[in-house]
TrEMBL record:
Gene3D superfamilies (alphabetical): Winged helix-like DNA-binding domain superfamily/Winged helix DNA-binding domain
Organism: Pseudothermotoga lettingae (strain ATCC BAA-301 / DSM 14385 / NBRC 107922 / TMO) (Thermotoga lettingae)
Name assigned to this protein: Transcriptional regulator, TrmB
One Pfam short name: MarR
Domain of life assignment: Bacteria
């Protein structure tokens, strides 16, 4: 639901959900190589190239040569970072409204359950 709310904000920008996913990863992880991004996103390099090109054309990404001149580093521009921050802000506002609607007691109970859920996931991953 929170993700859906964030996706509604994307209607204000000329990008798709897949393009936003890439932009968001660069926002949080910093500049990355195309091969790293391709692996992380689980998509072919040719598909990634198209996504990067479109985001570059609207000014949300930049492509610069790395130390090895054959390698490009992809990074979010200031404008691209603003898009990510806007979507995050809307998601935070939405979650705040939902928690307010739940009330303090139910919100605290939800937080405890989510913490237990997270711990269970981590336990299952490590076994």
């Amino acid at each position: 639901m929170v993700k859906v709310e964030g996706r509604l904000v994307l209607k204000n920008y000329p990008i798709t959900a897949a393009q936003f996913d890439l932009l968001q990863r660069l926002y949080f992880r910093g500049p990355m190589k195309m091969t790293e991004l391709s692996t992380m996103l689980g998509i072919a390099k040719s598909t990634l190239s198209g996504i990067v090109r479109r985001l570059e054309n609207v000014g949300y990404l930049s492509r610069t040569r790395g130390k090895d001149k054959r390698v490009f580093m992809i990074s979010a521009t200031a404008e691209g970072k603003k898009v990510v921050e806007s979507v995050i802000e809307k998601r935070v506002e939405f979650v705040g409204k939902v928690l307010q609607e739940l009330g303090k007691e139910d919100s605290n109970q939800l937080l405890q359950l989510l913490q237990k859920f997270k711990e269970a996931i981590e336990k299952c991953r490590s076994s």
